[in-house]
Specification:
The chain has 2 domains: about 25-325, Thrombin, subunit H, CATH 2.40.10.120; about 335-400, Orthogonal Bundle (Muramoyl-pentapeptide Carboxypeptidase, domain 1). Strands 1, 2, 3, 11, 12, 13, 14, 15, 16, 17, 18 and 19 form a 12-stranded mixed β-sheet that branches. A 7-stranded antiparallel β-sheet has the order 8-7-4-5-6-10-9. The protein contains 7 helices and 19 strands. The radius of gyration is 22 Å and the shape is globular. It has about 400 residues and is α+β, with helices and mostly antiparallel strands.
């Protein structure tokens, strides 16, 4: 696997999904190239000091070419008929880690984005959540808002995601590459985007009718101004790869939305939007680009890398997280490390939690909460909520009386 570490790279990084290759024969090697903020294809070699002045909260701009443009580049400024959309879509920025993604408002204080924008992928060290800020309608307003709980080290409790450890090797769990984050204040007061849970077949049909488009920020398109990607194709099979080949690489291919809306660096986390007779709705979150590369193998070693075929961009079907969004919006999170410590101790007594009693919300505590929710036949959220604590404490009382 090749992957560019955060910095200012000079070439795109591919998160390679390795497959068995027979020596001496050219065979396809499938890969996911995530639209990570700093891995746009063919980035010009330019250090931050060489770049132009940066706007508040953003890494300095870099020269970049499009990551995945299919045929003629059809990205344009947002049409007048969608003039209200920029107030609902913004940049998710971590200046210290030099990360930039797109996010969009789904509640007055909740933003949706790609999970890898916050947590990175397997083997990578994620940046502190407290360093992230969201700015909707960035090119005009630039009001930065952090994640709730960041001020007291509790930001992790206010993020819900498909996975904290995204796999980039087959079976690739791209359908878990989504995240919801609660902001420290209601920064989305000028409207939110509705989220629709549609089967993939319905999204494909909507695209065939010219109803699917994308709004996103791109490094190479009028930097830090949102772009409109015209109605594009959504399909299962493409000229360079059929569905049977593609599906083998993913853990949950049924929830994968493959599309040809033109994208660029920083477009991870952007919404795929369906135009309906009654308004707009998000049907998927853009997360990466699916490519098939070819290599020449001899005696089990790669001797030559051939040109890669860009198959399509990848997105997560909104049906994966639509129901979880409702639970997340209604949840009241535990607010302090002391409360988290108490939750950890209770779950450890139940032999569900195996981590340290440290007052921090992490993968071990999330797994313990999910295990409890499954055992109790509750909706599985993994969230450290006041309702969960009250339920656990109520279960302890009968045991205390009988002791």
């Amino acid at each position: 696997m090749q992957h560019q570490q955060p910095g200012w790279p000079t070439a795109a990084a591919a998160l390679t999904a390795g497959v068995a290759l027979r020596a001496g024969r050219r065979q396809p090697r499938r890969a996911i190239r995530q639209l990570l903020p700093l891995t746009a294809a063919l980035l010009a070699s330019q250090s931050p000091s060489q770049a132009g002045p940066a706007r508040p909260g953003l890494p300095p701009p870099v020269l970049a070419q499009p990551v995945a443009v299919f045929g003629r580049d059809e990205r344009v400024a947002i049409p007048a008929r969608y003039k209200d959309l920029p107030a609902k879509i913004g940049l998710l920025v971590n200046r210290r880690a030099r990360l930039v993604c797109t996010g969009f408002c789904v509640a007055p204080d909740v933003v949706a984005t790609a999970g890898h924008c916050l947590h990175r992928t397997h083997g990578e060290r994620p940046p502190p959540l407290a360093d992230f800020v969201f700015a909707r309608n960035y090119d005009k307003e630039r009001h930065f808002t952090g994640i709730a709980g960041a001020a007291n080290g509790a930001a992790a409790q206010h993020v819900m995601s498909g996975s904290l450890d995204l796999s980039v090797r087959p079976p690739i769990d791209a359908s878990k590459d989504w995240a919801l984050l609660r902001l420290s204040r209601p920064a989305c007061q000028r409207g939110v985007l509705a989220v629709a849970a549609l089967p993939s077949e319905a999204i494909i049909a909507a695209a065939a009718a010219g109803q699917i488009f994308q709004i996103s920020y791109h490094r190479d398109f009028m930097p830090w101004r949102p772009a409109y990607s015209r109605p594009c194709e959504v399909a299962r099979s493409f000229a360079t790869a059929d569905w049977a080949t593609i599906a083998r690489d993913f853990a949950d291919p049924a929830q994968l939305v493959l599309h040809t809306c033109d994208t660029g660096g920083a477009s991870s986390g952007s919404p795929l939007i369906r135009q309906t007779a009654t308004g707009l709705e998000v049907v998927a979150i853009n997360v990466g680009t699916y490519v098939q590369s070819k290599v020449l193998m001899e005696n089990g070693q790669v001797t030559k890398r051939l040109d890669a075929d860009t198959v399509a961009n990848t997105a997560v079907n909104s049906s994966v997280f639509a129901a979880k969004l409702l639970a997340f919006r209604q949840a009241t999170m535990l607010a302090s490390p002391a409360q988290i410590e108490k939750l950890q101790m209770i779950l450890k007594q139940r032999q569900l939690y195996t981590g340290s009693i440290d007052g921090s919300y992490g993968a071990a505590l999330r797994a313990a909460i999910e295990a409890y929710e499954r055992a109790q036949e509750l909706p599985v959220t993994g969230l450290a909520t006041e309702a969960l604590m009250q339920r656990l404490q109520a279960e302890l009382r009968p045991a205390a009386k009988g002791s």
